[in-house]
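Exercise 7. Given the components listed, write out the predicted structure of the assembled complex. Treat all entries as one system.
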Amino acid sequence: MPGGEAAQGCCDRCARAQVPERVGVTAGAGSPGTAAASRRRLLKAAVFPPREDPRSIPGGHPHPPGRPEPDGPHPAPEPPGSGFADAAQLPRAVSGTILDVSPQVLVVGSGSDEQRFTLTPDAAAWRGALLEPAALRQGDHVVVRLHPSSRQTADRIWANIGRVTGIITERRGSTLTVAEGATLAPRVITIQPRAVGRIQVRFPTLEPGYLVDIIGLRRDGVLDGMIPATSQPAYPANRLPAPSLVSGHVPDRISGSATWHEPGDEPPGVLGVCYPALDPEAGCAEDLVTGRAHGYARMPYLAIGSVLRVRNECTNLDCLLPVTGCAPVARLFNDRCVTCGTSPRGRIADLTMASFVALGGELDRGCFNATITIGE
Amino acid sequence: MLTAIREVQIPLIAALLLGGCTTKLLRTLRTGAVDQGLGPVALFPMRVRQPMAIVICVVECGLGVGLILTVGYGRGAPANYIRLGAGLLFLVATSALIELRATRPDVGCGCFGDFSTAPVSGRTLARSALLAVASLSTLGLHVARPGDNSGISAGELLIIMAAELIVLGALSPELGEGLIHLGYSEPCELRDVPADRTLAALRRGKHWRRHSGVIISDTPTDVWRELCWRYVVFPASYQGRSTEVVFAVFLQQRRPAVHAALVDAATGEPLPWPSAPPPSGRLGWRPRRPALWLPGGWDSTVRAVGAQPDLPFSREL
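Answer.
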């Protein structure tokens, strides 16, 4: 039976340290933004080195990051690499293809690796609907969340789950073509007949120019749309209302909705977050799809490599994640996450699947109420 | 006094109804769809959302105009019907908002179009209920015409109206949006500042002159921004070692604060600065009279502002 302490973040401490070659690896290792994240974090620490300060609070900073101190401007210092997963830590989410499954054991393969997980009676699976893990099939692509108390036990399994979030560019009957970004290939959603009513309640205008966010089953490059991930904004993407003005200082902690996206070009299993307000000077290529530099709500500007502490308010899990990309479509939404209460604002983070799952999110729910802390 | 309070309700409610109708129309013109984001309309089946949105808008407009036109006929049937209609409208709206809050907590009330996007709150409900009571309180009221001796002064009416406006303002989430526009100054974290401007400000500053001697290219190898700071990295060479100079520039227009560090290009580890600025740099460092001139000249000025050569970084404003 599982034993040990529950994890409090994206990763578990691996007592056996089975991955010695990964010395220096950080969360998000292997992702496009990892090198930039590590390098920039190091250089920033060189300019603003860590220092002892009696006013410091545990896990916090004596001054609001990025704002002038009484004796001069100075952002919050941060030790490079602190809080990231290190060589002895492994993500709590695993993805791969089912090689074998029985009522007690799940075998998942990824490349040449093969991992075996124990299935407890509490383990649950999803493939379009909740089902017994034993009902999963060989060849299903799965994302597995490991049990907090044991890395050999599967807690939750999602099979063939996919999500399309973007702007409808074409509609033919129940088939939608959706643009997710200028550099990404168009995605196709086929809305299943039994899900039409459910989806149209939340997305009444399935016409070109409007936003859509649908979760379903991935099949041969097409998403069988089954679940509306949110409610459709009232406005088409090209008529975004002017963002609300923000007065005073921007708070260090911002609460809102955290969503997830499919890996795309990212390596599977990467821990990271796409942030909806990258510095316009950074030239997010995906901006081209919307033609807008600002989203529905203003958020402080960050860059690839900035570090956020993301906290799941529904599970109280949190961890540091590097910004690995921009989220040009997420910032067009003005939805609220209602997983546990109503989030005070819309999308503040678009997590990779591994990050979302590891923080306790349920992929089939689409979001969790989150708080991000900038500058730690 | 009670009569004066009742009298004030009619123009206030008429103005609110017409305001609500106008903002909904403006939203419709902007979005191109009449039923989009109109609060309680989201409770209806899709096929009736658009007709319901039109009906609500027309009813609001009709009641607002009707309240004004019948203001002098308080004891007549038309005036009472209009006022009763307004009261019922707000009663129904209150009930609908309670239902909306329970079933669709993410949807705004839509009362004033684009201004009412915040989720329905207790304040929104209280405002709607208050307006229902206010509307029903005007039933049977005969509003005195100018010249009538009603015993109510214009000053009293104004004070009552101002007090009620304050109450309504406190109950209106939409008001915060308007107040923010007054005296607004964009926080530096949100300010759009082109990288070219940051680079120009950096090159005008003394940090650039002081450290340009080790910089081997005026093209930065990396530029990124985090909150109020933009970081600029230049390749450098120091004692035959491949290094980088990292500048952090505060994003403000005039005399931005600058911090700098010299790091090893391979490891990113901080290195000590050269003990004295080189006499002439590749990028044109030229000694000149510093802005803050102290006895002892340049060196003492450097010491005074804190550039300590034995430290791997400098912290100067």
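Discussion: Chain B is about 45% helix and 10% strand. The first strand of chain B starts at residue 222 and ends at 226.
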